[in-house]
């Protein structure tokens, strides 16, 4: 697996996130067919994984967490939904 930074391709999403949330930085990555949105605010960070065709796999979540934070998937709580997964990380624990 490989994360590819595709933030420049999502300029509208990034500008909307920065304008309407407490986010300080927003990065968008491609993990094959899965899109990973990493948002960092002053008090927390969030990872959102989405895939239009299938549900998110646990291996994808673990890979994204380990590459984008100093944590592993056992240290965070993951909320799974249809074709998405969300991870919220308090700033005291984030990278």
Brief synopsis:
This protein has 95 residues and is an alpha+beta fold. The protein contains two helices and six strands; from the N terminus they run βαβββαββ. This is DUF1827 domain-containing protein.
Outline type: globular
| Broad CATH class | Alpha Beta
Provide the residue-averaged pLDDT: 90
Rg is 13 Å
Alpha carbon gap, first and last residue: 21 Å
CATH architecture: 3-Layer(aba) Sandwich
Helix content: 10-25%
Count of spatially separate domains: 1
Sequence stretches where pLDDT stays below 50 over 5 or more residues: none
List the helices and strands in order. EHEEEHEE
CATH superfamily, please?
Streptococcus thermophilus LMG 18311 protein like
Question: Biggest sheet, open or closed, and with what strands and sense?
Answer: 6 strands, antiparallel
Counting DSSP H or I runs of 4 or more residues, the number of helices is 2
CATH topology: Streptococcus thermophilus LMG 18311 protein like
The SS-based structural class is alpha+beta
Give the arrangement of secondary structure elements:
Elements lengths: L3 E2 L5 H10 L2 E9 L2 E8 L2 E7 L7 H11 L9 E4 L2 E7 L5
Antiparallel strand pairs: 1-2, 2-3, 3-4, 4-6, 5-6
Question: If you had to describe this structure to a student in words, what would you say it looks like?
Answer:
With 95 residues, the protein is α+β, with helices and mostly antiparallel strands. The chain has one domain (4-90): Streptococcus thermophilus LMG 18311 protein like, CATH 3.40.1720. 22% of the residues lie in helices and 39% in strands. It contains two helices and six strands; from the N terminus they run βαβββαββ. The protein has helices at residues 11-20, 58-68, and strands at 4-5, 23-31, 34-41, 44-50, 78-81, 84-90. The chain has a six-stranded antiparallel beta sheet, with helices on both faces. Strand 2 and strand 3 (34-41) form a beta hairpin. The chain is globular, with a radius of gyration of 13 Å.
């Amino acid at each position: 697996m490989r994360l590819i930074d595709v933030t420049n391709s999502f300029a509208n999403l990034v500008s909307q996130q920065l304008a309407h949330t407490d986010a300080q930085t927003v990065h968008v990555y491609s993990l094959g067919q899965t899109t990973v949105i990493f948002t960092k605010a002053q008090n927390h960070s969030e990872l959102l994984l989405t895939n239009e065709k299938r549900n998110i796999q646990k291996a994808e979540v673990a890979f994204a967490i380990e590459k984008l934070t100093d944590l592993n998937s056992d240290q965070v709580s993951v909320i799974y939904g249809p074709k998405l997964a969300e991870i919220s990380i308090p700033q005291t624990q984030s990278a």
